[in-house]
Design brief:
The protein is mainly α. It has one domain. Strands 1-2 form a two-stranded antiparallel ribbon. A hairpin with a 2-residue loop joins strand 1 and strand 2. Helix 2 crosses helix 9 and helix 5 crosses helix 7.
Length: about 325
């Protein structure tokens, strides 16, 4: 894929401009956004992703267009699952609703930074070590098995109990008061740090864990740096609005982890087959178009089955 310097410059410039706009708007008026506000912003971000994919399709070819859409869907699906962890984290650390937008924005910026680092490291590994696709594939299959086991054992995630967060809570003198993104101040003659700092540390640590899943997954779809970067950017851009828009709905998607387990397992197998093809061990590869179809069908079945089960449970309860 031949991406010009101008394309990279415009893409990075627009990404930074959107982030700065969000930061300025949120900093001026911290609040819990309305459903209408979230729906409009999310529609703009999703529409922009669809138009961007169409542009890639027209100017760089349909194969790259399919790779972008597939990668974006995978990253977006993982982001939706990650939202549940964010909801648990915000509730456990008692972040006021009006300040959750600020915390999420910082988390998204950190996610972009960490994923950018992981993408760069991943490409270096791909260039130097031919066996890395086997490692990525095996890791995704292992992650998929872990998701299934977690679902079967009904284990809840508690990111607020991670060692990093507990260490920060023990060694930092933390105030009980939230003051937006103000990180420290003097209280009773002593300097204290905001509980928001603990939240940001927890979000940063969680972002790193998420990147370990998402970056190998996107490499299973495409190895084009431009597509890997833009798929991640578009998947993260609407995450803040999605958090407030479907926070309650996430609890109804009871089969989401199973659907994601199947998707990650599928991509893991695709990576291993790709590695075997590169090593001339097999003569075929799994087409990206087939992966796109598998992902769409899996997400549709997962969503419909989840909503049906929760509806039946609610009817049985009444």
């Amino acid at each position: 894929m031949d991406v010009s310097t101008l394309e990279w410059t415009i893409t990075l410039g627009v990404t930074i401009a959107v982030l700065l706009f969000d930061v300025v708007v949120i900093a001026r008026d911290p609040h819990e956004p309305s459903m209408r506000e979230c729906a409009i912003a999310l529609s703009v971000y999703v529409g922009a992703a669809i138009l961007f994919g169409a542009w890639v399709w027209i100017y760089h070819g349909h194969d790259f267009g399919i790779e972008f859409y597939t990668g974006w869907l995978v990253e977006y699906s993982l982001s939706v699952d990650n939202l549940f962890v964010f909801i648990v984290l915000m509730a456990a650390l008692k972040v006021p609703r009006e300040y959750q937008q600020e915390a999420l924005m910082v988390g998204i910026i950190l996610a972009l930074i960490f994923r950018g680092i992981f993408i760069a490291v991943g490409f270096q590994m791909i260039d130097r070590f031919s066996w890395v696709f086997y490692a990525f594939g095996a890791f995704l299959i292992y992650t998929a098995i872990g998701l299934v086991r977690s679902y079967r054992s009904h284990e809840d995630e508690h990111p607020e109990n991670s060692r990093v967060v507990r260490f920060a809570q023990r060694h930092l003198k933390t105030s009980e008061e939230f003051r937006g993104l103000k990180m420290w101040w003097t209280e009773n003659g002593k300097r204290v740090v905001s509980p928001m700092l603990i939240v940001i540390i927890a979000l940063g640590f969680t972002d790193i864990m998420f990147a370990l899943d998402s970056i190998p997954a996107i490499f299973g779809i495409t190895q084009e740096p431009y597509l890997v970067f833009t798929a991640n950017v578009f998947a993260l851009m609407g995450l803040r609005q999605l958090y407030f828009l479907i926070g309650g709905l996430l609890k109804r998607l009871v089969y989401l982890s199973l659907g994601l387990a199947f998707i990650l397992g599928w991509i893991g197998v695709k990576l291993i087959v790709h590695a075997m093809h590169e090593g001339h061990l097999v003569e075929f590869e799994i087409p990206t178009l087939m992966s796109l179809a598998v992902i769409l069908v899996t997400l549709a079945v997962t969503t419909l089955a989840s909503l049906r089960k929760t509806r039946q449970e609610e009817q049985a309860a009444t």
